Amino acid sequence: MTIHVSPEACPALVLNADFRPLSYYPLSLWSWQDAIKAVFLDRVNIVSHYDTIIHSPSFEMRLPSVVSLREYVKPARHPAFTRFNVFLRDRFQCQYCGSTHDLTFDHVIPRSKGGLTTWENVVAACAPCNLKKANRLPSEIKMFPHQAPYAPTVHDLHNNGRAFPPNHLHQSWLDYLYWDIELEP
Predict the structure, then answer these.
(1) Is the pTM of the predicted complex or chain greater than 0.85?
(2) Boundaries of each HNH nuclease domain copy (predicted)?
């Protein structure tokens, strides 16, 4: 019996050698093909399997659902300053009104007034608030961000990413994703 497995089906959760996900948001996932390739190249250990079996003429194997890297990959010390990471730091909410729709980013001190494009001066803002604030200082229009902009750590972004789990979490992944949350008595 041949089973067709689509590339989107059966992704493998990728853990670092310390059994923590490489990334929470986006969640560190590999396609089943990449996971199998890493197994054969001896780069990962299989931690858990799916029930799905793949076959070739001379070989069969259960698909890995969780893999851990054999060698520890040191996480970046400072996250990249990207639009996505600004949104993640600000939990995908406008820092002026709290909206989660039509997000862009705003320079708290406008560039026209000497503001820089840095972690400490950029916040997530919805388009209406951004247009309303325009190129004015917060004190001129009485629009202050709920949270002062700051340079987040990788840990800050991982913590925020946990608040946005993907649509599908396989049962075998759960022990590795939220292991530092407080347990119920």
Answers:
(1) no
(2) 81-131
